[in-house]
Amino acid sequence: MINEFKKINLNHSFIFFLLSCIFSLIIFKINNFSISPLICLLLILTIGVSHGSLDHIKGKKLFNILNIKKISIFYFSYILIAISVIIIWVIIPSISLIIFLLVASFHFGKEDTQFLINKNSYFNQLLFFLKGLLIILAPMFFHFNETITIFKFLLVDNEIFYSTLEFIEVNKILPIGIILSTLSSVYLFLREFEIKKFIIFLDFFSILIINYYLSPLIAFTVYFCFLHSIRHSITLVNELDKNDFINGLKVEKTQIVIYNIYNLYIFLVL
What we know:
Layout: H1 2-29, H2 37-48, H3 55-65, H4 72-91, H5 93-111, H6 122-142, H7 144-153, H8 159-170, H9 173-190, H10 199-213, H11 216-240, H12 245-269
């Protein structure tokens, strides 16, 4: 089942790579093409965020480890953390954004790669962070000004923050970060080599391609919805039923449909 699981992810990465190339080239050939930010938001709130619809299962596993029986505590804590993040972001947006980008780098690197790695170590966690850093650095490297505009839209107006980003961009520090991310991908690929690990490079080149040809918002939407979210969902399906992938898919599909109907309703109301 493990090999089948990796094969499914390899097929997904290969299809995403091909579609990224085709979609990016088509967009590149069309002058003044743009996709409404509202469409990107809708995709992120449905297809993208839906992979979090089974967070309660992870919560139950965590509570079993901590020997906590009341799952209601998890839901209360989950909502409280979400509200706290919003409040803190409004108060100190620049620091919140930096923390968010660091956490996002680790999250993307880990969730997109850990199913290929057998050992869990602090060094692997560092490699996951460096690998995921590409998601954050690529849009700034290819479309620096557009990325800054998105940061400003997120309520970040700290002059020191933007001065630091300009220093990083002018002094060619961004390419160094991308090189480190590349080296981490190479190391993860070569260590305990197997052909299915080619997923790492398919994802790597896909991310570079969509960020080169597409605007930062569209590129992130494509990555988040159609690579990261689906990859994460495949992992969850496998966790739901390690012996029967189809049965696990049925359970997850039900959860996601309910979650997306709720998100769509909220989006329309807003």
